[in-house]
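Dear Dr. L.,

I hope this message finds you well. Following up on our conversation about the binding site, I have prepared a predicted three-dimensional model of the protein together with heme C. For your records, I am including the exact sequence and ligand specification that went into the calculation, followed by the structure tokens. Please feel free to forward this to your student if that is useful.
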Amino acid sequence: MRRLVVLVLILAGCATVADGPDYSALPRWPSHAIPQARGDVRALPDGRRQAVRYEGWTTQDFGRFRTYAYDDTRPEIPVSRALPPAGLAGDARKGRALFLSREKAPCTGCHLVPGADVWPAGSVGPDLSAIGDRRLPDAYLYQQIWDPRVTFPNTTMPPWGASRAFTAEEIVHLVAYLQTLKGPLPPEPDAERNPFTRRRPTGFGDNLDPTNNPAVVIAEDAEKLWNAPGPNGRACANCHDGGVTRAMRGVAAHYPKLVAAYGRVMSIEDFLTVHGPERTGRPLLAESAENVDLTMLIKMASNGMPVQVDVTSAEARAALARGKASFYRRIGERNHSCADCHTPERGANKFLGGRMLADVTEGLTRHFPTWRTSQGAAWDMRRRFQWCMTPLGANMLAADAIEYAELELYLTSFDNGKPISAPGIRH
Ligand code: HEC
Ligand code: HEC
Ligand code: HEC
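The resulting structure of the complex is given below.
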């Protein structure tokens, strides 16, 4: 009998492996995030739908395209073949404007083409400066832009026509422009213009030096919050004694982890959204300043200690498999996955526009939350996830969604054994 049970369990295990990750046993999770970070979409009086996001972020609803939600079972944008429409003449001048348009793409984010106004071009895709010399048929180029997956199934290049980001006519103009790009190319006067010769960016200085990183001062200031009684009269310091540095030493090294009491994987940020109100009566909403600041304070108590997230228990392995599936899942209008930009096989260590793409295998996580000099604020990792994918035409999930927590666990697993150094500082 015992043997039979074991056999059944083994077979059940095989079945889930063969069918991909198991999403069935996860709790439903109501969000405890600030309104800008909940992924809400609201209906306007005129019936249009508008996404609620941070000020300055697009309010466009991308509900037409799939997201990271585990219960969003829609497939990625189907691969599509297309021929240039008959009777449409391409206009190379219009094509160039489309190629450079920041509204539209821009194609220059990944491809170099001639012109002093092409700035900053990226190197994720091949240099197209002389593609006209290859005498490729118009129909071939049209298909590459419409949907390159027909030739390159794992490409990082979005299916611009299949997603309806570009119209057939616009793609005809793009093809006409590319056919005008012919060598020999004049010598490049500016090595920085060309992403293949551009200097690689250097660091941002000592991230733990308070005169260099404003987030260090903010985090230290969060000690006031740690000591301040919440509405129920209790402060963090009442139950966690000995000062935050001692009480929280080594804690952050184990997060994200499965927290049995809540039946889900949580980062420190996720945990505080429920632990804060339960124990002190104070809401610590995901992506609120209080939540991010306390997280920085808690993480600093583990600085220099190696990351040690659980990757071996059965629960952790199941969560990692789901996180990995999300990392490779293509979503949104651009049909991008995280892997497109952050793995060395694809975009990592290349320039996307002016930005050198970080490599997941070298680590993306140990310096979060991170001060962003370009934003003048400390960001936790979830806000970074939301920021990475929203402009690529995807609706975001709530900051404290289980999907993001398991994705974060997968990213963090690459950092096991490497020292924590938070808060970080980045552009
Ligand atoms: C996120 C990066 C990215 C963006 C944005 C991008 N491409 Fe590409 N593109 C690539 C990559 C990578 C390849 C090489 C194909 C491969 O190996 O996946 C490529 C290949 C190409 C090719 C050459 C195909 C061949 O057979 O040699 C053309 C033409 C092209 N892209 C045009 C465009 C145009 C036009 C746009 C804007 C509408 C654009 N690309 C935007 C990444 C990108
Ligand atoms: C009433 C007592 C109490 C208060 C107040 C309290 N905690 Fe806790 N905290 C606990 C207990 C007990 C645990 C361990 C059990 C659990 O996970 O709930 C814990 C666990 C934690 C953990 C996870 C530790 C680990 O090893 O995984 C963190 C982080 C934490 N608390 C932070 C805080 C912060 C920040 C505050 C203030 C907002 C706070 N706590 C307030 C009792 C308290
Ligand atoms: C089209 C490209 C693109 C995609 C797709 C993308 N990112 Fe990014 N990501 C960037 C850029 C650009 C940066 C800033 C430069 C850098 O640090 O890589 C960045 C930075 C990050 C960072 C911070 C790295 C650091 O060292 O500070 C994290 C974490 C991150 N991305 C996670 C993700 C995750 C998770 C996904 C999928 C949900 C994703 N990204 C999808 C372009 C992308």
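In brief: The radius of gyration is 24 Å.

With kind regards,
A. P.
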